Amino acid sequence: MSLTEAAPVRSATAASHPVRIATIGAGRIGSNHAEIVARLVPGASLVAVSDPVGESAQRLAAALGAPLATTSVDDVLTSDEVDAVLITAPARSHTDLVVAAAAAGKHVFVEKPMAVTLEDADRAIAAATDAGIVLQVGFNRRFAPGFAAARAAIDAQKVGTPHLLRSLTRDPGPFTADPARIPQWTIFLETLIHDFDTLCFLNPGARPVRVHAMADALVRPDAKSTGHLDTAVVTVQFDNGAIATAEASFSALYGYDVRAEVFGSGGMVTAGSGLSTDMTYYGPDGQHADTARRDTDLLHTAYVGELTAFVGAIRAHTPAVVTGEDARTALSIALAAIRSVETGAAVDLDR
Known about the structure:
Layout: E1 19-24, H1 28-39, E2 44-50, H2 54-64, E3 68-70, H3 73-77, E4 84-87, H4 94-103, E5 107-111, H5 118-131, E6 135-138, H6 145-155, E7 162-172, H7 186-201, E8 208-216, E9 231-238, E10 243-252, E11 257-264, E12 267-272, E13 281-283, E14 286-288, H8 295-298, H9 300-316, H10 324-343, E15 347-348
Parallel strand pairs: 1-2, 1-4, 2-3, 4-5, 5-6, 7-10
Antiparallel strand pairs: 7-11, 8-9, 8-15, 9-10, 11-12, 13-14
Helix pairs in contact: 4-5, 5-10, 7-10
């Protein structure tokens, strides 16, 4: 079976029973996802938490009523009480965990990036296909209401043929992390990977063909000599002629900022905002609006939407809305951007 050929999705649970989910990773995002599954996703039940730090697993499991807390991933994968897993461990471990979970017959939701090499992406896709399990990747912006509405407008031909696209991610500042603890190329593999998927999502049916990137350490210039990069701009050309720009910064002092724009022959759509609500205060000192400081606040609805879609795919025995192939495409852009920074030249993508 080819990597792109769809396999029947394995039935993990009767329609009348909840999908029993374990989270692998009890950090910030793992805790967020686990709480959403436990409290907000219909037809789902959180049954286990795994984390190498036992206290973290126990604390999260106790808070959410999960019966199992363990430091062993094997305890989760070998359990007959687990139908699916959320993989929110460090990025470089994602592929091996996907492969192991698929081999154990567990449906998989994996945070981005699914892999950091194309070979590993292919390995994850093949494992899921062979096992007949749902494999969904955590590109949450597809489920944010504004981004979903933008895609609907594009599908309805309201924008016409896309000409120019833009997607940006600006993390809330001030930047206080230790650059030495941030893996090299994180800005492409873990930050801009969202924007690369967004550009493909908002240019449906088109294939990225050429990438050029520039990056620097503008937030922490003192760390540049170590390979740290915290600011980047990437241009992506598509086979339908559209030209796209993705940009990222690790420090926006005004808050977390995620936006997108598509300009076409028939109009334009924009999506996203850094505002925590749509309230604006007008007073003697002018206008004021509150901004979000965490992705889990700004994109809460999107996180709920993607996990609800994952459970829905399992229950309906259908493929995931966001597939391993989608993750591979975004990764191919990220890896081309890295090569472009290394060489100073544009990089053509292989077919």
